[in-house]
Amino acid sequence: MQQPDALQAERILKVQAILGLVSVFCALPFGSSVALSVLIGAGVCLLANTLLAAWVFRDYRAQAPERLVWRFYGAETAKIVLILVLFAVAFATVDHLNIPALLGAYFVIQVVPTLIAAQFGNRTTK
What we know:
Layout: H1 4-27, H2 32-57, H3 65-93, H4 99-125
Helix pairs in contact: 1-2, 1-4, 2-3, 2-4
């Protein structure tokens, strides 16, 4: 990953990983089931986004934008399937899974780093 977009994706993934760890530590006082649920939600989000970034930016060629579009659609489809499979496995195998904590962690890890990156991107262009 050496293109500017790939570097931005790498930064977002790093922020997601840090925010995921912070979220798990913040969830610890609420009990092990909540902390485990937050860990699973954050982990699913990070794993799926890492898959997407690796798939989209491997052998990147700006000269073939139509191939990049199809690669992105394929990667997004694979990401959604992976998320559904991992959540299904978690629902089926983890006792006392806290669904609001799991989905909340997924949502926060997905959205907040992107908003942070957008804010920093806006500041550097002004």
